[in-house]
Each structure stands twice: as C-alpha cells, then as structure tokens.
Amino acid sequence: MKHTLITTCIAALLLGGCSLMPRHPEDEFAATWPEELPREQAANGAIYQAGYDVALFENAVAHRVGDTVTINLVESTAAQKSSSTSTSKGASIDIPAPVFGGTPLAIGGHEISASLDNSRTFDGGGDSSLSNKLQGNVTVTVARRLANGNLVVRGQKWIEINQGREYVRIQGVIRPLDIQPDNSIASYKVADAVIAYGQRGALADANRPGLLSRFFNSVFNPL
C-alpha cells in the first residue's frame, strides 16, 4: 500500500510537470486542420449532399476552419524622434557690513561685507530613429471563426538555405470582406497581428554574441 501511494504521487508530479512545460513556438503556429465529416451519412439525394454545398453568388475564399488564405507581407515602418533641453538659473546675494552705533563694522579700515553668487546650466539632447521593411507572401490557415464572422488565422513558413533555416510567422484576426477574390489579404489589414522573422542554424549562432559578451552588456553587469 505504501509503495502504491508513493508511485501514484510520483506519477502525478510527472504529469503535472509535463502540463506546465511551455509549448514550442513551432507548435503554436502549426497548421489547423478542417473538421472531418462523419463517415456514415444518410443519403440526402443525388444532387444535394450536406456539407458539400457551394454558394453561387460569393467568392470562393477562406471562411471555414482549416481553409487557407495568403497574406501579402507589405510591412514598412519608419520613425524618427529628436529632443533637446536647455535650462539655466542664476542667483546673486549681497550681504552688507553690520552697523554698530551708526557706523559700519570695519577691520583694518575695510568694511566687513559678503556676497554669494550661484549659477546652474544644463544642456541635453537626443536623437532616435527606427525603420524596418518586410515583404513576401505567407499562406496560413484559419484556426477559429469568431461569433461576428471574423477569422483567426495563423501560420508559418520555413526556408532552409545551406546551413541556416529562416522562418516567417504570423497570426491575427481578419475580416472575410477584406479577402481579395484571389484568396489573399494584405498584412496591414490583419488585426492584432503578430509577425516574427528570424533564423536558426550555424549562421545565426555565428552572429550571436558569446555568453560573456551578453553578460557584460546586460543589466546584471556591476561595472
């Protein structure tokens, strides 16, 4: 009984650990397959078959889970910012010599007086610029159809060249009305879009700084 309880606890911990393991990004962007129709169906007739109907007055574009749609990547952004600050402040105070009996106090024939001068200046400036450009096509699948008819799409494309693998991932929400007759849509019409571009392999590892370089350039470096 005691061994059985221990075995049960260990199995529960292992299953809990597996459930807490994060999903790989490749799994999150995996293709969504359409729902399979039941194998056994009642005969509906020789002309009409349920599940195979085609609308005669609408374009044959993606509108169901598992359908594919091509997203044209036309991302191009540019931002520039500059700022400058200049401040100055000055103060001057004169303290006259104290007077005793109507005569200013003097030492060695010189009146005792004082003056204070204070001045502060500050000049600061900064410039920042950012630009990126991404073009191409990625065909994704419909992962979910929302209650208002919008479609949640996601997908990825992998390209392997020599010793490196490049990928483009995208997910977001699109409107069926924005899908063109050729079953494509521009990326700037994708709501809540998440677009990622990167690479893996020997070339990517060579362009990545080493462990010590990353440490000395991190916020944990006390120097």
Structural description of this entry:
It is a single chain. By secondary structure, the protein is an alpha+beta fold. Among the domains are: 68-79 and 132-208, no CATH class; 80-128, no CATH class. 15% of the residues lie in helices and 47% in strands. The chain contains 4 helices and 10 strands, in the order ααββββββββββαα. It has helices at 2-20, 25-28, 202-206, 211-216, and strands at residues 68-95, 99-100, 103-104, 106-107, 110-111, 114-145, 151-161, 164-174, 184-186, 191-201. A 6-stranded mixed β-sheet has the order 9-1-6-7-8-10. A two-stranded antiparallel sheet has the order 2-3. A two-stranded antiparallel sheet has the order 4-5. Strand 2 and strand 3 form a beta hairpin. It starts with a helix and ends in a 7-residue tail after the last helix. Mean pLDDT is 76; it is low at 17-22.
What attributes does this structure have?
223 residues, alpha+beta, 4 helices, 6-stranded mixed sheet, two-stranded antiparallel sheet, 15% helix
